[in-house]
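hey
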Protein backbone atom coordinates (compact mmCIF):
# COMPACT_ATOMS: atom_id res chain seq x y z
CA UNK A 1 0.00 0.00 0.00
CA UNK A 2 1.40 3.37 -0.99
CA UNK A 3 0.14 6.93 -1.18
CA UNK A 4 0.03 8.34 -4.73
CA UNK A 5 2.33 11.20 -3.74
CA UNK A 6 5.04 8.79 -2.55
CA UNK A 7 4.48 6.66 -5.64
CA UNK A 8 5.00 9.65 -7.97
CA UNK A 9 8.10 10.78 -6.06
CA UNK A 10 9.77 7.34 -6.19
CA UNK A 11 8.79 5.85 -9.56
CA UNK A 12 12.16 4.17 -10.10
CA UNK A 13 11.70 1.75 -7.19
CA UNK A 14 8.53 0.09 -8.54
CA UNK A 15 8.15 -2.85 -10.88
CA UNK A 16 5.71 -1.95 -13.67
CA UNK A 17 5.34 -5.23 -15.53
CA UNK A 18 3.82 -8.59 -14.65
CA UNK A 19 1.89 -7.39 -11.62
CA UNK A 20 -1.44 -5.94 -10.51
CA UNK A 21 -2.06 -2.31 -9.54
CA UNK A 22 -5.15 -1.24 -7.61
CA UNK A 23 -5.45 2.54 -7.95
CA UNK A 24 -8.19 3.86 -5.67
CA UNK A 25 -9.41 6.99 -3.93
CA UNK A 26 -11.68 9.93 -4.55
CA UNK A 27 -9.33 12.09 -6.65
CA UNK A 28 -10.07 11.02 -10.24
CA UNK A 29 -7.47 13.32 -11.83
CA UNK A 30 -4.70 11.79 -9.73
CA UNK A 31 -6.01 8.26 -10.37
CA UNK A 32 -5.89 8.91 -14.13
CA UNK A 33 -2.38 10.36 -13.86
CA UNK A 34 -1.10 7.32 -11.92
CA UNK A 35 -2.71 4.96 -14.46
CA UNK A 36 -1.14 6.86 -17.37
CA UNK A 37 2.28 6.72 -15.73
CA UNK A 38 1.95 2.97 -15.20
CA UNK A 39 0.91 2.53 -18.83
CA UNK A 40 3.78 4.76 -19.98
CA UNK A 41 6.33 2.80 -17.95
CA UNK A 42 5.07 -0.51 -19.29
CA UNK A 43 7.26 -1.57 -22.19
CA UNK A 44 4.73 -2.18 -24.93
CA UNK A 45 5.66 -4.02 -28.08
CA UNK A 46 5.11 -2.54 -31.52
CA UNK A 47 1.66 -4.09 -31.62
CA UNK A 48 0.95 -3.28 -27.97
CA UNK A 49 -2.69 -3.39 -27.00
CA UNK A 50 -4.45 -2.31 -23.85
CA UNK A 51 -7.58 -4.29 -23.10
CA UNK A 52 -10.17 -2.31 -21.13
CA UNK A 53 -12.77 -4.22 -19.15
CA UNK A 54 -15.74 -2.75 -17.27
CA UNK A 55 -17.12 -5.03 -14.57
CA UNK A 56 -20.49 -3.21 -14.54
CA UNK A 57 -21.02 -3.73 -18.27
CA UNK A 58 -19.31 -7.11 -18.78
CA UNK A 59 -20.47 -9.02 -15.73
CA UNK A 60 -19.35 -12.41 -17.07
CA UNK A 61 -15.70 -11.61 -17.70
CA UNK A 62 -13.46 -14.65 -17.40
CA UNK A 63 -10.28 -12.94 -16.21
CA UNK A 64 -8.49 -16.26 -15.76
CA UNK A 65 -9.04 -17.18 -19.39
CA UNK A 66 -8.08 -13.71 -20.64
CA UNK A 67 -4.82 -13.66 -18.67
CA UNK A 68 -3.83 -17.13 -19.86
CA UNK A 69 -4.20 -16.25 -23.53
CA UNK A 70 -1.40 -14.56 -25.36
CA UNK A 71 -1.51 -12.62 -28.58
CA UNK A 72 0.48 -13.81 -31.54
CA UNK A 73 2.29 -10.46 -31.67
CA UNK A 74 2.54 -9.47 -28.00
CA UNK A 75 4.69 -11.00 -25.31
CA UNK A 76 2.46 -9.60 -22.59
CA UNK A 77 -1.03 -8.24 -22.06
CA UNK A 78 -2.11 -5.03 -20.36
CA UNK A 79 -5.57 -4.96 -18.81
CA UNK A 80 -7.41 -1.96 -17.41
CA UNK A 81 -10.35 -2.93 -15.23
CA UNK A 82 -12.99 -0.35 -14.32
CA UNK A 83 -15.72 -0.53 -11.66
CA UNK A 84 -14.28 -3.43 -9.65
CA UNK A 85 -16.32 -5.22 -7.01
CA UNK A 86 -15.60 -7.81 -4.34
CA UNK A 87 -16.25 -10.70 -6.74
CA UNK A 88 -13.06 -9.74 -8.60
CA UNK A 89 -10.97 -11.11 -5.70
CA UNK A 90 -11.73 -14.73 -6.60
CA UNK A 91 -10.69 -14.09 -10.22
CA UNK A 92 -7.45 -12.39 -9.16
CA UNK A 93 -6.38 -15.42 -7.15
CA UNK A 94 -6.63 -17.62 -10.27
CA UNK A 95 -4.91 -15.36 -12.79
CA UNK A 96 -1.56 -15.68 -14.45
CA UNK A 97 0.52 -12.58 -13.72
CA UNK A 98 3.52 -13.98 -15.58
CA UNK A 99 2.74 -12.17 -18.83
CA UNK A 100 0.20 -9.62 -17.68
CA UNK A 101 -0.01 -6.17 -16.18
CA UNK A 102 -3.38 -5.38 -14.66
CA UNK A 103 -4.48 -1.91 -13.60
CA UNK A 104 -7.69 -1.76 -11.58
CA UNK A 105 -9.42 1.63 -11.36
CA UNK A 106 -11.12 1.82 -7.96
CA UNK A 107 -12.65 5.29 -8.05
CA UNK A 108 -14.62 5.96 -4.86
CA UNK A 109 -14.12 2.46 -3.44
CA UNK A 110 -14.80 2.54 0.30
CA UNK A 111 -11.89 1.87 2.66
CA UNK A 112 -13.77 -0.94 4.39
CA UNK A 113 -14.59 -2.85 1.18
CA UNK A 114 -13.24 -6.39 0.78
CA UNK A 115 -11.35 -5.58 -2.43
CA UNK A 116 -9.59 -2.58 -0.84
CA UNK A 117 -8.57 -4.63 2.19
CA UNK A 118 -7.42 -7.45 -0.11
CA UNK A 119 -5.02 -5.18 -2.01
CA UNK A 120 -3.83 -3.27 1.06
CA UNK A 121 -2.66 -6.51 2.65
CA UNK A 122 -1.41 -8.33 -0.47
CA UNK A 123 2.32 -9.03 -0.57
CA UNK A 124 2.84 -8.81 -4.36
CA UNK A 125 0.12 -6.51 -5.69
CA UNK A 126 0.27 -2.72 -5.40
CA UNK A 127 -2.43 -0.63 -3.75
CA UNK A 128 -2.06 3.06 -4.63
CA UNK A 129 -4.38 5.50 -2.86
CA UNK A 130 -5.19 8.85 -4.46
CA UNK A 131 -6.63 11.66 -2.36
CA UNK A 132 -6.48 15.44 -2.35
CA UNK A 133 -2.91 16.76 -2.65
CA UNK A 134 -1.06 17.82 0.49
CA UNK A 135 0.39 21.34 0.60
CA UNK A 136 3.97 20.04 0.53
CA UNK A 137 3.41 17.84 -2.50
CA UNK A 138 1.35 20.56 -4.20
CA UNK A 139 4.25 23.01 -3.88
CA UNK A 140 6.69 20.41 -5.26
CA UNK A 141 4.34 19.63 -8.12
CA UNK A 142 3.75 23.30 -9.00
CA UNK A 143 7.52 23.95 -8.99
CA UNK A 144 8.09 20.93 -11.23
CA UNK A 145 5.29 21.88 -13.65
CA UNK A 146 6.46 25.51 -13.87
CA UNK A 147 10.02 24.31 -14.59
CA UNK A 148 8.83 21.84 -17.24
CA UNK A 149 6.79 24.55 -18.95
CA UNK A 150 9.55 27.19 -18.62
CA UNK A 151 7.19 29.48 -16.77
CA UNK A 152 8.40 32.24 -14.45
CA UNK A 153 6.17 34.12 -12.01
CA UNK A 154 6.90 36.92 -9.60
CA UNK A 155 7.19 35.84 -5.98
CA UNK A 156 3.81 37.36 -5.08
CA UNK A 157 2.06 35.81 -8.08
CA UNK A 158 3.62 32.42 -7.32
CA UNK A 159 2.43 32.39 -3.69
CA UNK A 160 -1.00 33.72 -4.68
CA UNK A 161 -1.34 30.91 -7.22
CA UNK A 162 -0.15 28.29 -4.75
CA UNK A 163 -2.59 29.39 -2.05
CA UNK A 164 -5.62 29.84 -4.33
CA UNK A 165 -5.28 26.97 -6.79
CA UNK A 166 -7.12 23.67 -6.52
CA UNK A 167 -5.86 20.67 -4.56
CA UNK A 168 -7.12 18.35 -7.33
CA UNK A 169 -4.28 17.10 -9.50
CA UNK A 170 -5.81 17.48 -12.96
CA UNK A 171 -7.23 20.96 -12.31
CA UNK A 172 -3.88 22.10 -10.92
CA UNK A 173 -1.97 20.72 -13.91
CA UNK A 174 -4.40 22.38 -16.34
CA UNK A 175 -4.04 25.74 -14.57
CA UNK A 176 -0.24 25.61 -14.76
CA UNK A 177 -0.46 24.83 -18.49
CA UNK A 178 -2.80 27.78 -19.00
CA UNK A 179 -0.42 30.10 -17.17
CA UNK A 180 2.53 28.84 -19.17
CA UNK A 181 0.60 29.46 -22.41
CA UNK A 182 0.10 33.09 -21.36
CA UNK A 183 3.77 33.49 -20.43
Amino acid sequence: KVNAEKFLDNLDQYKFEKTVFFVSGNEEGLINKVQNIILGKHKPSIYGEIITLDIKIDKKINLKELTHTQSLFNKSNVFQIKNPNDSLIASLEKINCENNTIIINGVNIKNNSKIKKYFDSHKKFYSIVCYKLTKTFKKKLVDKLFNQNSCKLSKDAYWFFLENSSDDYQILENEVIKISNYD
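The radius of gyration is 18 Å. Strands lie at 2-3, 20-25, 50-54, 77-82, 100-107, 126-130.
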